[in-house]
Fold each of these.
Amino acid sequence: MSLPFTIGAPVENKHIPNSFELSITTMFGDADGYDTFTIGPFIQGADDGALTHLLTVMEGAAKAFPNGRSGGGGYEYDIVPGFAYWFGYDDDGDGDVVDAYLSRNELELDWPTDPYGDGDEQSFDSAALFFYDATGVVHTTSWSAKWRYGSPTS
């Protein structure tokens, strides 16, 4: 029996070997929807400082509002130490390792906003770190951060 399709050209693996990628999930509204975005690659060895800084920031975001966010009015993530270096609040050069990483990778990151609201930041939900080995195969890691009402964990 023959199959009703043909196999095409190989798909190029666009992941850089021996690198990490951080996947971040945010929530908007009252769990009206979720968005996921990635930051990376972080080259193992070369970008360890920037990656460690970002993981610390995400752990801070998971713990920033243990009783939830009610939008605006002091509930922005810029209160998390280091958050401003990554997500467009601070361009004064104080975060040297972060500035170098963002500049080298030509990244300008903005924290997602509620698509139905008045520009309020989406809430941090979770983050997971993945590793791409020398052959480009993706691996999970033991690092993750997740917000839980009343009891954030990382």
Amino acid sequence: MERIRKISNSKNFIFYVMILSFSCFLLNFIFNVFVNAAFPYIVCIISSIYSLIAAFLFIINKNTKPALMMVFFFPFIHGNLITVDFNTLFAFIPAIFMVIAVVVHHILYKTKLKMQKLFLGLIIYMLGVAIGGIGSKSVGEFYANFKWYFIFYILIVCAIIIYVMLVISSDIEMNLHDYAILITYTGLFVCAEVIAYWAIMPFVLDIPENAFFNPIQLGWGNKNNVATQLLMFLPGPMYLHAKDEDKKIYYASIGYLFVFFIVLVFSRGACGVLAFILPFVLAYSIIVSKKKKQTIIIHASFLGAILIAFSLLLLINQTLFHKIWDILLDLRFNSFNGRSSIYESLFEIWGENKAFGVGLIGSFNWFVDCKNYQFAHNSFLQMLFVSGIVGTVLFSIYILDKYFHLLKNTTKEKLMVLSTFLFPGLYGLMDVTYLNPVFMVTMLASYCMINDVFKDEDPRFYIYG
């Protein structure tokens, strides 16, 4: 037991988590593609085993960092497409294991719960989601006879989530450097999954050479979800590049690898956000770095190499170059890239219950009927649809509260954390980040990890013990 505890708290533990997580993903993905795509239970079996290991780490360690690292990787191990009907089974079995483990941890180590800086705004946001659908009768059979107990059900789930986060964050021993390392290697993990997809799909497609251009579907997410996560993880390697003078080139290489994959998964919205934020990211890394001249040279070298690579591609294979270029610039402004029909239908249904929207279940019923989309492709419109004007106001308060705390008494470390939320948040104006399960898990886990950024401010206050 002591040996397991020692390994789980070692610096190399993240690599063990990556190996385990990637093995789970490959098993899921290969089973889905080659064996039986209609058998989703493999997802539940693998995720349950994975979550049992994480639960075990919660119990044997007072420091919740090792287990939370596994939770952070958890959304990315699912290489199967999850059906709507199967979501409940897939989500709740691992969740039950986690909750039980956290309760045991709380009792075993007599954890003193401490309210963290960003939790109050999060509670307001959860309240906004919970009240969605009050009085709605137009979307889905469930809301034809709306029951108030559903609100209490959502509130109970939210309360459990907050409780779990309080226990984890109160017993975590993790600094901002550790967090930057985690998001850096999680980003590498996502890149490896994309490479695995490109390597496997030629054996599946009728035209193997189309694998690179085939819309990416990793099971847990498509090209837009991949790009969202890489935007979230990009500040990690750039922060480490600026702070770690001995590994500047190594971390810069990882950062530019993320840039490369954001472009080549062909998410046009993410590429637009990247083009906007990249100058600020580069400026940040130069300002933070002690060796500014060396940092400038490194960035200039990477940018020059990218320019040369695209120039050579244009000279060697103009067809391939123009195909990539045409995909990235396939912008249909007159229809918001095909979203206008979604917006029109969304506003039509929302108009029947403007105050509280159609509710969380009602929104999923509607998007299932639409078949082509799962979300409204805008975080604020999604909240407007789900929870109406009231929920959107509460969501806005949450957003303002989060950025207020991160901008207050701004430090270089706070800017790094701010960027991990802001970059995918900007993309959320063209897609949905909030209410997307994968992003929500990584975001909520991040909330538990970043207490160190507020250590010099007002002390956290105990709410129990």
